[in-house]
Design goal:
Blueprint lengths: L11 E2 L1 H19 L5 E3 L5 E2 H13 L2 H4 L7 H5 L3 E2 L1
Antiparallel strand pairs: 1-3, 2-4
Helix pairs in contact: 1-2
Amino acid sequence: MSVSCTENDTDKYDAGDANLRILAMYALRDAECGTTHTLSGFILGKATRTSVDLCVSQLYMLTCTEWQVSDPATAACKAIGISFR
């Protein structure tokens, strides 16, 4: 009997797609809240869709008061390497 593990890439975003999704939400929140943040931490490799989608959802749910801190990245975003300044 042999066992092999294969990684299923259909449940992952490549780094470009993942960063684009997060950057789009970041730009939307800055526009809505009248703030300017710089994304200082990026996803460098593939990331699970669940992780990226959770990060984006959590960013969307922040109030403008919560968004106005120096690094509004949520725990889900930080877990995949995202940070702001």
